[in-house]
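Ligand-bound model needed. 2-acetamido-2-deoxy-beta-D-glucopyranose.
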Amino acid sequence: MDAPLLFLCLMMLMAVVMDGNEDQGSRLRGLWMLSMKDSKQKNKGVPPPHPIRGLVKQQLLYCKVGIGYHLQILSNGTIGGVHEPTEHSFLKLFAMKRGVVGIRGIKSGLYLCMSRDGIAHGAGQFSSDCLFKEILEENHYTTFSSLPHPGIYLALSQKGEVKRGTSVRKHQSCTHFLPRIAR
Ligand SMILES: *[C@@H]1O[C@H](CO)[C@@H](O)[C@H](O)[C@H]1NC(C)=O
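Prediction:
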């Protein structure tokens, strides 16, 4: 670990000790983004999300299309929807900065990623393809669009299969998700 990175880590640690509220959380994320920028220049990739406890939520992502489906990430990397939640439906959403999240399947350990062709898949390696803009739409549903590939949305079909993200628009219910806290 080089000196600037070590300095940032120390600052983050100090901030945690001094205060633990929400504003502090976003400041921490800002600092983390700065340190990521530093390492990104070296190995042209995004390191895995920093496991800042308390900012990580376990939840389900319910899509209202068709009969209603919960997003799942299978261990072979397949993304799909299932009406009744399974062990593969429990997800962790990591806030990477304001409005940008990473999504990880708890059972599979895979990150939800979106290729430039609009193919959603689970990957063991975190990359910029796994960054999503989380937008609360006017109808109170949330859409997830690829950060590096603007205009590509996470979507499920009427049958609950993953849809190609390039062929959908944000006003369509196939892109509308309701984050639910898992019990
Ligand atoms: C992944 O696993 C599911 C369920 O076991 C199966 O239906 C699907 O065909 C598999 N996909 C691949 C690409 O192996």
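Helices lie at 3-18, 22-43.
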